[in-house]
Amino acid sequence: MKDLFDKIYKDKGPLGKWADQAEGYFVFPKLEGEIGNRMKFQGKEVITWSVNDYLGLANHPEVRKVDAEAAKQYGSAYPMGARMMSGHTNLHEQLQNELAEFVNKEAAYLLNFGYQGMVSTIDALVGKDDVIVYDVDAHACIIDGVRLHMGKRFTYKHNDVASIEKNLQRAEKIAQQTGGGILLISEGVFGMRGEQGKLKEIVALKEKYNFRLFVDDAHGFGTLGKTGAGAGEEQGVQDQIDVYFATFAKSMASTGAFIAGDQEVIDYLKYNLRSQMFAKSLQMQLVVGALKRLDMLRSMPELKEKLWENVNALQNGLKERGFDIGTTQSCVTPVYLKGSIPEAMALVKDLRENHGVFCSIVVYPVIPKGLILLRMIPTASHTMKDIEETLEAFSSIRERLENGTYKRLSAGVAAAMGN
Question: Which pTM was predicted?
Answer without folding.
Answer: 0.93
